[in-house]
Amino acid sequence: MLIIECPYCGQRDESEFSYGGEAHNARPLEPDTVTDQQWADYVFCRANPKGLHREMWNHSAGCRRWFNAVRDTVTYKFKCVYKIGDPQPSLEQIEGPQ
Amino acid sequence: MNRLSSGGRIDRSKPISFSFDGKQYQGYQGDTIASALLANGMRLIGRSWKYHRPRGSVGDGAEEPNALFQVEQGALTIPNVRGTQAQIYQGMVFNSTNAWPSVNFDVMSVFGAFSRFLPAGFYYKTFMWPKKFWMTYEHVIRQASGLGESPKQIDPDHYEKTNAHCDVLVVGAGPSGLMAALAAGRSGARVIIADEQEELGGRLLSSSASIESIGASVWAERAIDELRQMPEVTILPRATVFGYHDANFLTIAERLTDHLAVSDRKGARERVWRVRAKQVVLASGAHERPIVFANNDRPGVMLASAVSTYANRYAIKLADRAVVFTNNDGAYQTAIDLKKSGVSEVTLVDSRADGIILAEAVKATGVKVINGCAIVNVLGKAKVIAAEIRNISADGKSISGAIQRLDCDLVATSGGWNPAIHLFSQSGGKAAWNDEKSCFETGLVVQKQISVGAANASFSLADCLSEGAAAGIAAAQAAGFNATDISIPSSDQIEYTALEPLWRVPTEGLPSRTAKAFVDPQNDVAVSDIYLAAREGFESIEHVKRYTALGFGTDQGKMGNISGMAILSEALGNKISDTGTTTFRPNYTPVTFGAIAGPEIGSTLSDPVRKTAMHTWHQENGALFEDVGQWKRPWYFPHAHETLDQAVDRECLAVRNSVGIMDASTLGKIEISGKDSGDFLNMIYTNAWKKLGINCARYGFMLGEDGMVMDDGVTIRLDDNRYFMHTTTGGAASVMGWMELWLQTEWPELEVYLTSVTDHWATSAVAGPNSRKLVSSIIEGIDFDKDAFPFMASRQGTLAGLPVRVNRISFSGELCYEVNVNANHGRFVWEQLIAAGKPYDITPYGTETMHVLRAEKGYVIVGQDTDGSVTPIDLGMGWAVSKAKDFLGKRSLTRVDTARQDRKQLVGLLTEDPKQVLQEGAQIVNQPSEKIPLPMLGHVTSSYHSACAGRSIALALVKNGFQRQGETIYVTTTDGKFVAAKISSTVFIDPQGEKQNV
User: Fold this and answer.
1) How far apart are CA B128 and CA B121, in angstroms?
2) How far is the CA of B222 from the CAs of B12, B195, B217, B225, B654, in angstroms?
3) Closest Cα partner for B54 from B95, B103, B102, B19?
């Protein structure tokens, strides 16, 4: 079981959290003006990378706040967490020298 | 008795009687089942599962494949207990597994005689055709094979779980584990040391070596005494670390009472520890592996280390004449141990050539040493009577020369050691092949852990002690403690000669042409099976495992797996490192379901049960209950001898003709407030909210962004910026989560507050033509006139002085008032309504009647009539979808696929035979006589007998259904027939809605 850092509560067991999928998938401001393809990209299509992934997590059995995290999908390791609305950390910096 | 008069770690002052297969025997405190049986001269203790060959104990620990027992009877029975790890206790009762009628005469052993015809994959190949007979075959096969029997009664024991955090978790309390715990413990770190055995000490308990010039086991006792003095150290004997998960989260099964006489057992039977460790020291030891040769499964062929254990720790003279067969130095000590235990003739057969350093020391004790030879066969059936040896070439690839017969009643073999890297691998570490030591060892480490001693392929006692100490210091330091060097205890220094790999003794010709040489005795996998798999094209070890069953079963191949991999490599002509290992998964050894379930057992299982405030009334009045999510809802209220159908007919007619009452408290209720709540609801629901009057209600759909119906319900505007939302019973939590998600991520600027109030309110729905008369007779402060309190409105009043909120909404199509009150008064208000309803013969009704009533009106149930692929338009409810504003999912409704006219659409179905009730879920086709495969048009979503309509009714999703009104389609039945039905409107009763607008 992973330990996940909630930006509001601190470190907690993974079982307190639920996953919310890829982060920063902004809803089109004017849905009526986008094409079917653009709308489908927003609703259905996700990056699913091998490696670092920005994603949403919810401290659902805790403070119930949503936050963003960068996680490595190969090792499951959380690299960092940040609040909704905070600037996105650059993946290059997170990756660091191997 | 084969028990020596002195020595060992058994307590001769505490004799223990036990019963095995109905006969009484005696052992001593400290014995395991396996040692007690061996001390009683019992060699044959079970039968193998496939060929029913006689089997005896091979090992002395978790690697034991054969010694499995059914311990105790009735509710207490435990199947497949490993006799090498279970302590005996006064009055213990156990039986051999898988031998009928007895171990000595097994009628199933006829399979053994035909073993030539039962190779790997035999069941797949033979019994899969014709397919329909498989069920019959499988039944017979399972009868004939299989392991122990699971208990059939409810487990009377209880189980505990505990969470723990520690600085250093030490797995295993052998020499390296004890040293690690001492080193870390002395620094003040919180240490947990867990060991699966009854006593801590690991191999030290059966070792004849000395440490600091005292016996190894005495040294271990002193080390444990020191650990006991340390307040921060937790010592867990009889505790198996069975899982190693992410972020140093490990699970330990501690057996608290299984070693006690049944009458002495108190408290929990087992406790599962869920440990989060800053650092882990894996001192899990190693498993000895045998050398594989023909008939190596005969009772009396054992692992050399186990032979030493039974001789030294349990003080048993195992044989009169013994042969020790080895390719390494470890078994030389076994030869000496055998001599010491009084075995008169010990012959050591070493596959290696002359020049072994230890040979002279062994010869000095009277052991005869033969070099450059190997055992090619064992004679005897229920018991070893002789070993046959021949010359083996230096490369181990061929045998030659005459057969030499060595009469003996015990064969001890050692093919080297496999580090127990199970937990290491579970933690994500990668196994690496060590060519020099000829074993898989720890490779890439991914968690905060250190492997030491035999688990790290360091097999000498001196290395175990020093690595353990170093790891304990390093782990404590990494956890932030100031650990300093500790002195390494001195131990016997022995010079070793290198092992020469020998996995199996070669045969002349194909392995399938000689007697069976077993690699995995528990699954009866022989060398010939692995060769067969290779010949049939299996190359991956994972596939060979599944084809041959290598490494399955309760031992998970701890003894035979690595040998099997090496033999597959040989058959394929590969390197062992290329073949690799199968995946090591939790659990390390089997864990009882009781331990895993912990205290959350019994009728409630692990899910909480939610009951409404009126629950006790329902019970007292004979309700049968239905589970809806976690809620217990009254299903129907049968009168004496009434069937479900009869009760539902009666309840339905009562509602339509007079008045009924239903407990609607379980519907999800969320209060939404804040200045932006109207804007928020406009986005969440398909319909518009801002113009809704105060104290007015509206039915709304909630869609996912894909445009599909997610939830529905009625929301009431309580005030300018305050709304009261109803959700489906099952959807309350997910709707709450859905709204929180949008408020927090996409629209954090909106000022909206959400409060879950489901449990705060108790709701009694009073439905039927007499409902107005009823509620107006006991509720004060509300004008119930039809115009003053219209449909889809909400009012506040009092009932017996209690404030109530009454909503005129309806899920039955009848005039209906839902009376909400503080849940603490739920039962009181319910009873007041029942009492006031007496003149109208008020009838309580349950979910089944509710379902029929709503289906008669074509009202959908989200999740029953929808399945995540249905839009409001598909349901014929486009009227609830606003064209003027944006809302979640709106854009999806105009996607090409979603806007198609011929989607599956909700329609009514009327069977030609009005008595025929269709099956929910049944598939729908155009015309059964068409060529198969018939195109599937959709399925029945709801189907009932309707007493009010006087016939069966059904709702269904049918492709292009709106355009097919009046057409006949066919519905499948589970007995393979088709039923004709006409597509109709979804409204079967009161199409104009006159009954609720009175």
Assistant:
1) 11
2) 22, 17, 9, 5, 81
3) B103
Please give the structure tokens belonging to residue A22: 């890829």
Q: Which residue of A has its CA nearest to B705?
A: A43
List the Cα angle B269/B274/B280 in 5-degree steps: 120
Are B796 and B779 in contact, with CB atoms under 8 Å apart? no
Comparing alpha-carbon positions, the chain B residue that sits nearest to A19 is B741
Tens-digit pLDDT profile for residues B22-46: 999 999 999 999 999 999 999 988 8
Q: How far apart are CA B673 and CA B659, in angstroms?
A: 35
Measured between beta carbons, the chain B residues lying within 8 angstroms of A88 are none
pLDDT digits (tens, 9 = 90+) for B162-213: 999 999 999 999 999 999 999 999 999 999 999 999 999 999 999 999 999 9
Is B705 in Cβ contact with A43 (below 8 Å)?
yes
What was the pLDDT predicted at B475?
98
Count contacts between A and B (CB, < 8 Å): 49
- In the sheet where B23-29 sits, what is the strand order? B23-29, B11-20, B92-96, B68-71, B78-82
Q: pLDDT tens-digit profile of A16-33?
A: 999 999 999 999 999 999
Asked if residues B295 and B516 have their Cβ atoms less than 8 Å apart, the reply is: yes
**Cis peptide bond upstream of B101, omega within 30:** yes
Q: What pLDDT score does B494 carry? A: 79
Closest alpha carbon to B52 in B481, B384, B382: B382
The pTM for the full model equals: 0.87
Query: Alpha-carbon torsion B257, B262, B265, B267, what sign?
Result: positive
Asked if residues B351 and B374 have their Cβ atoms less than 8 Å apart, the reply is yes
Closest of B559, B481, B636 to residue B305, by C-alpha: B559
Distances (CA, A) of B550 to B144, B529, B544, B808: 19, 9, 7, 68
- A interface with B, Cβ–Cβ < 8 A, is 1-3, 14, 20, 26-28, 31-32, 34, 36, 39-40, 42-44, 56, 58, 60, 64-66, 75-76, 84-85
Contacts of B784 (CB under 8 A, 6+ apart): B772, B775, B776
pLDDT tens figures, B342-388: 999 999 999 999 889 999 999 999 999 999 999 999 999 999 999 99
Cα gap B267→B258, rounded to integer Å? 11
Tokens of B9: 């770690």
Residues of B within 8 A of A84 (CB-CB) are 744-745, 748
Tell me which of B272, B710, B745, B888 to substitute to probe the interface with A (most A C-beta atoms closer than 10 Å).
B745
* Residue B115 clears pLDDT 80, i.e. is over it: no
